[in-house]
Amino acid sequence: MKYLDEYRDARIARALLSEIAQNARRPWVLMEICGGQTHTIMRYGLDELLPKALELVHGPGCPVCVTPLETIDKALELASRPEVILVSYGDMLRVPGSRGDLFMVKAQGGDVRVVYSPTEALKIARQNPERKVVFLAIGFETTAPANAMAIRQARQERIGNFSALVSHVLVPPAIRALMTSPECRVNGFIAPGHVCTVMGYEEYEKLADSFHVPIVVGGFEPVDLLEAVLMLVRQLEAGTAKVENQYVRSVSYQGNLAARRAIEEVFEISDQKWRGIGMIPRSGLRIREEYGDYDASRIFGLASITAEEPAECISAQVLQGLRKPPDCPAFGMRCTPHNPLGAPMVSSEGACAAYYNYRRNLVRVEG
Ligand code: SF4
To answer: Closest by alpha carbon to 204, among 264, 246, 147?
Structure first.
């Protein structure tokens, strides 16, 4: 299959590994931002094939994992109301809030429905004019254009019973926050190819300059990631720090301009809380005033809901690449995909779920 088989080709992967081994002369810590990239690394054991001097740490790029607890609690509150149909992607139903998850609310009679796109949420709103349909609109820059277009469409069609509970996060401010942390060990980043497909990579150049850190926009297949690692290693060994694009089959410098315009029309940049990490200035998107009639937070007066993370979950350190899931005492014991304590174990893109699926041998047996 074009654009798939050749990126899983063992011969190409072996050649890249050999080049990486020849080029890596010093220890480097590299972070892949996206949870999809983390899963590929774990699934194909790429981290174990690299020279020992290279360490891969996993970043905060799992949208389900970083959606703040408050947002989940707001969704739980809304889903409990008889007049509301809460519409969401399937992953979100199992994310634990302060008092259970959306599955629990559904089991207690709440009208919670799973969709694959915001367009389906709009359809539910058209079909149920007597109910209030709230779409849980989360994600990185990748999902923002479709969510923006759904909100715009709702206004064009005057669908008055549709609104969105928005929790959008942006990658570049998160990289800035990671780099300004005194604990940061990261020498180079693999930026998320799908995010850059939408946004381009112009903004990453400022980060590479400011922090003298190389950034390579990478894809999601094993060969993509090995090539991105090689590009980073070459830069690090040469002492350069620029942005390079490995994922050329999808990413252009400016990204998708129509998608960016849709985001800018409906959303504006705001400070945003990241689950486990805390507030990162100007790292989120909120619905603009002009579209306020479609903002569930404003319509339902949910701003006052706040929440604290459970102490046992170390996802804050996992999402910043400071620790790995097996370092968590609950990993694979009290926290599993069937009984998750934290969001990184729930999501199909979460680092803890990746380790649970592919490195379960690392579970510590408590004695
Ligand atoms: S294993 Fe579970 S409790 Fe530990 S950091 Fe991951 S999600 Fe949190």
So the answer is: 246
Structure token pair of residue 154: 């709702």
Atom of ligand 1 nearest to the CA of 340: 2
- Residue 356 CA: nearest ligand 1 atom is 1
User: In this structure, are strands 267-274 and 278-287 parallel, antiparallel, or unpaired?
Assistant: antiparallel
Q: Does residue 330's CB lie within 6 angstroms of at least one atom of ligand 1? A: yes
Residues 6+ apart with CB under 8 A from 355: 42, 324, 325, 326, 331, 362
What confidence tens digit (pLDDT) does each residue in 264-281 have? 999 999 999 998 788 999
Q: Quote the CA–CA distance of 157 and 249 in Å, as a whole number.
A: 36
Q: State whether the beta carbon of 347 lies less than 6 angstroms from ligand 1.
A: no
- Per-residue pLDDT tens over the stretch 286-315: 999 999 999 999 999 886 655 566 678 898
pTM (2 d.p.): 0.92
**CB distance 313 to ligand 1 below 6 Å:** yes
Is 110 near ligand 1, meaning CB less than 6 Å away? no
Query: What are the tens digits of pLDDT across the range 93-131?
Result: 988 888 889 999 999 999 999 999 999 999 999 999 999
Strands 162-169 and 84-88: unpaired
